[in-house]
Structure formats: C-alpha cells, structure tokens
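Entry for the shared binder. Reason: the reviewer on the internal report wants the predicted structure included alongside the sequence.
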Amino acid sequence: MLQTIMDQVFLQNSVEKYLIALVIFVITILAVRLFKSVILSRLKSWAQNSTSKMDIYLLHSLEKTLLPALYFGSFDLAIRSLTLNSMLSRAIDIVGIIVLTISGIRFIVAMVDYTLEYSLKTKEFTDREHNLKAIIPFLRVAVWGIGLIFLLDNLGFQISTVIAGLGIGGIAVALAAQAMLKDLFSYVAIVFDRPFELGDFITIDGHMGTIEHIGIKTTRIRSLGGEQLIFSNSDLTNSRIQNLKRMETRRIVFKFRVHYDTSSQQLREIPVIVQQIIENIAETRFDRAHFSSFGESCLNFDVVYFVLGSDYTQYMNIQQEVNLKLKESFEHKSIKFAYPTQTVYLENQP
C-alpha cells in the first residue's frame, strides 16, 4: 500500500521523488541555520574583540547578502532532484542568476559605502565628509548599472547591440561633460591620495595659501593677502604642489658679507660666532657656516641651519634673533658688515 502511494506520479515525478526533494530541502536549510547560528555567531564574537571595525562590517554584510543566496541554493538543490520541464527549469535558472547577482551587487555597494563613510571619515574634515556623501549615490548607481548589465548579458539579452545604439549619444554626453568628469575624478584622487587636506598651507604656481574648501569640482585657497583663490581639481592634480604644513623641519640658508678690512683672525672667528649664536637658540640645529668667497667689494659668508618646526612665524622670529645677536657680536668684535662700495683712484699726469 505504501509503495503504491510512493509510486504515484504527479507532474512527471513520483511521490517518492517529492519526499526526497523535501528531505534535501530540510537538510540544507538546517545546514544554513547551523552555519548562521554557530559559525557566523562565533565569527561575530571574535570580531567584537577585534580592533578593526572592518571585520564587524564585513560579517554583517555577508550575513545580509550571503544568507539569501544560501537559502535559494537550498531550494535549487532540492528542486534539481526532480524532473522538470524546460520552461520551469529555465525560470529557476533565471531566478538563481537574479538572486546571486543582486546579492553580489549589494555586497559590493556595502563595501563601497563602508570605505567612503568609515575608512575616510575624520572628525576634523566634516566638509570632506559632506562631499563624500554626495559621491556615494553616483557610485551606487555605477555599481548597480554594471551589475544589471552583467545580469542582462547572462540572461541572454544582446547588450552589445544596446550599448552600440547608445554609443553616439554617450559620446556626445561624454564630450560635453569631459571637464566636469575630469574634475570629479581629480577630486576622487585627492580624497584617496590626500596630497593636502583642509588647513594645509601649500604653494602652487607661485600662489601661497591655506586650503579652505575641497569641493567636487573646485578647491578654494585663502591666500596670504586675504583673497580667495579658486582652482579646479584637475589643475591641482596636474601641478606641482608644495605642502608646507607637512614640513617637519625647515632648512634655512642665509648669507652675509663683511668688509675687506676684516683681519684673518677675525675671519676664522666668524663661523664660530655664528655657530654659538644658533646653538643657543631653542628649536634650531646648526649645520654649517663658511667663508665662501671673495666678492668685488666684500668677503662672503654662507650659513645653513634648521628650524625644528614648520611654522613660518617661528622661523621669522628665530631668524630675527640670529640677525640681532650677529649684529651685537660683530659690534663687540669690531667686525664691520660690508655694503656696496666703489673706490676710484686718481693719477696725476705730468
């Protein structure tokens, strides 16, 4: 009696096959639940103790995107044990491709969101955070667009024909938006590479100033004169930029000249005097001082030292102190600074 019931056929499959499919489905569902409750739970516990937020976010993203695919895989594995007509089999294949593609796209979008919103997030630069949030929708649309093209191609649609049909319009739009896209990509390069940040003091093409705003298309700099300079992002990424704020030490080179009447003994004492002056000033490191050359009307000295900091006002205060002490020491030693002079010799003719 039982065997008779098992041998009954409905829609090309016996009752026995339906029961086997049901058992496969239940077992695979239990396996997925076991994976979720045991393995994922332990990984979450381990991630909670980890210092990296990336681990926690990655596990949550996997849970949201991987589990639906695993549940569908359980159904697909069970249904494949049955004899299906070609139309139903094709429909299940299409649903499987859609589920896997959407799960993959959601995972990629989650990773992009995490990278932009968390990895690059800093409390000091809220203006940059605002611009990043403005870019996120564009990136989501780009990822979903690529994913949908991949999906349609796998479903058998002739994507190349559609893309070719849109080619002329796409070229026109690309040419019209070339400058804007160039600035947008330059902004992305600035965000990721960070050649400068808000508050940095930079020099570019002879202009000096402090970074005041980094926008999607332009960057604004407050110059020393007080006016605001506006550069397109592509101009900045194509230029040589000096970031003075990141300068750990400042190398200072200065020259001075003394009179030709200065004695040889005094010339030997001058480098020692300069070294003692610089070494007695805080936040400096002496490098060298030399009697470098004979000038037309003077004797030339070169001095090199380092200011242990990047602040320009600090450098000027130190240089002023060096100049004042040098003047005092030379007055005490009766050493005269040189200034441009010209001597004219007159000869009496008989």
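Summary line for the report: The two ends are 155 Å apart (CA to CA).
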